[in-house]
UniProtKB/TrEMBL annotation:
GO molecular function: glycosyltransferase activity
Pfam families given in the database record: Glycos_transf_2
Glycosyltransferase 2-like domain location: 5-169
Protein location: Cell membrane
PANTHER family for this protein: GLYCOSYLTRANSFERASE (PTHR43646), GLYCOSYLTRANSFERASE 2-LIKE DOMAIN-CONTAINING PROTEIN (PTHR43646:SF2)
Listed name of the protein: Glycosyl transferase family 2
Organism in which the protein naturally occurs: Kaistella jeonii
Any single Gene Ontology cellular-component annotation: plasma membrane
Lineage: superkingdom: Bacteria
Keywords attached to this entry: Cell membrane, Glycosyltransferase, Membrane, Transferase, Transmembrane, Transmembrane helix
TM segment ranges: 235-258, 264-282, 289-309
Lineage: Bacteria, Pseudomonadati, Bacteroidota, Flavobacteriia, Flavobacteriales
Length: 333
């Protein structure tokens, strides 16, 4: 029997917590428990959770701030069921989310699983543009949005399930504040555990609501990747560095244009821009979202690429320890 505990690590985000719990309260299968871990929020989240006590089996815990990974570990230790399902606090799930998880677990042997994230019809245009950038085959390779896009799926914590025994075997999430979920996935692989993609458990992921916050977020993701490469060298791919090549190529394109009056490199970026626009237009059927998708895509590529390049130089050329180069990426015990 596959029993499920949903773990929500949250910092502030009162409105998002209400929306997530509301979506969980309408499940076609209501046989699950919810563990909410308040990671030192500056506002009181308990009253929001208490609104759903009659409809959901909720346990609420509050602790000092340590970042999402260690807060999820805290919640995992307090669960009663066989499977741990982690969702970010800024997602909404469909009413058959739990039902479909159980159906998949009965049919697909695995030790961990994940699903896609997508944009809800109620999201604003910017959120939909950012969602496109984070899930498109022309940006991330579709690793967050499509089963067909990957050969070995790496679950992410916005929508991730792990067998409790496997989670405990690998020690749960690490002390990393950024990149803790791919770190966990690779630890599972290194211990011969298997992962799977479930294509019918997608969640609606709000992400960041403006380009500035989005840029900061993907920059941090870029910084984390070389750290993960050091930890798990077996799973390094040249494609991880593609956004850095994209950034360097763009700079070289301007040098070529201004100093040599040639536009061959920038011509490639022009073609890429048209590709993004028309693909986003085809996907979203909205010209405004398609136009904004160009902006969000370049922000994603440049910010991630800069973060990756900076991190790679600090770790591999200057030989800094990750904890010294990026102290904010790690929890200090």
């Amino acid at each position: 029997m596959n029993t499920i505990s949903i773990i929500i690590a949250i910092y502030n985000r009162k409105d998002e917590l209400f929306e997530l719990l509301n979506s969980l309260s309408h499940q076609t299968d209501n046989d699950f428990e919810i563990i909410i871990v308040d990671d030192g929020s500056v506002i009181n989240l308990r009253p929001t959770a208490e609104l759903f006590h009659e409809r959901l089996k909720i346990e609420f815990f509050r602790k000092e701030n340590s970042g999402p990974g260690l807060s999820r570990n805290y919640g995992a230790k307090r669960t009663k069921n066989d499977w741990l399902v982690f969702v970010d606090s800024d997602v909404i799930v469909e009413k058959d989310y739990i039902e479909n998880i159980k159906k998949n677990l009965a049919e697909i042997p695995c030790d961990a699983f994940g699903g896609a994230d997508k944009a809800h019809k109620g999201f604003n245009l910017m959120q939909k543009a950012i969602s496109y950038s984070m899930t498109s085959v022309f940006t991330t390779g579709g690793i967050r949005g499509s089963k067909k896009a990957v050969t070995k799926f790496q679950p992410r914590s916005f929508n991730m399930g792990v067998r409790k025994s496997a989670f405990e075997k690998v020690g749960g999430f690490s002390e990393m504040r950024i990149g803790e979920d791919p770190d966990l996935s690779m630890k599972l692989w290194e211990n011969a555990f298997t992962t799977a993609f479930f294509d019918n458990i997608g969640v609606y992921h709000k992400r960041r609501v403006d380009f500035g916050k989005f840029s900061k977020q993907v920059y941090q993701f870029g910084c984390a990747r070389p750290i993960l490469n050091q930890r798990h060298p077996k799973y390094v791919k040249i494609s991880f560095a593609f956004p850095s090549f994209f950034l360097i190529g763009y700079i070289l394109g301007f040098i070529e244009y201004f100093f040599f009056q040639q536009g061959l490199i920038l011509g490639f970026y022009g073609l890429y821009t048209f590709l993004i626009f028309f693909h986003a237009l085809y996907q979203t059927k909205n010209i405004s979202i398609a136009a904004m998708a160009i902006i969000s895509t370049y922000i994603q590529m440049f910010s991630y690429g800069y973060g990756f390049l900076k991190s790679w130089i600090l770790l591999n050329i200057f030989r800094q320890k990750p904890e010294d180069a990026f102290p904010s990426h790690f929890h200090k015990f």
